[in-house]
Predict the 3D structure of the following.
Amino acid sequence: MTRKEQKEEKKRTILMTALRLFVERGFHETKISDIAAAVPMSVGLLFHYFESKEVLLKELVTMGVQYTSSVSKVPAKDPEAFFKMFLNQLFEFINTQPWVFNMFVLMGQARKAGMPEDVRELAEKVNTSEELSKIIINGQKSGAFREGDALQLSITFLAAVQGIIEEMAVNKDYKAPDPDWIIAILLK
């Protein structure tokens, strides 16, 4: 591994460690020294990679924005199948790729009051509700989804998913529910 590759790998380790700690403890409760200890590395060395905890958070949210924008690129010819696939993949990530699961939680947290304003503005650029509402409209046209405001249905669906994921983040014994229960919010 080249020196540049080692540096990128260490940076990724710092990001993934910070992501996990921000989700488990909260951004404000996580100290830069907590992240350094968990990596493990000295606080001084961590500052060579990220000049502050806020810069670290902003980079994570930037990653989240890039990842979340992929929702609109997924073809949704069968809206019900799309939502089932979305939930199955999301719940599978809990075991196979916990960083994706943690990113989902962090992106929800990043939009809340009390976060650094530039991070909130960045997180608010992600409008998954709007993207999913377009798929819901297709489901309404085909007769599979209930009538009503597609954006409100999308927000309701995502709020349920966010709540489930946040519960799973704090309660490791809580298992993902059957995706059909959540999809039922949308069905006729």
Summary: The mean pLDDT is 91. Residues 11 and 156 are 36 Å apart (CA to CA). The chain has ten helices and no strands. The domain at 53-183 is CATH 1.10.357.10 (Tetracycline Repressor; domain 2).
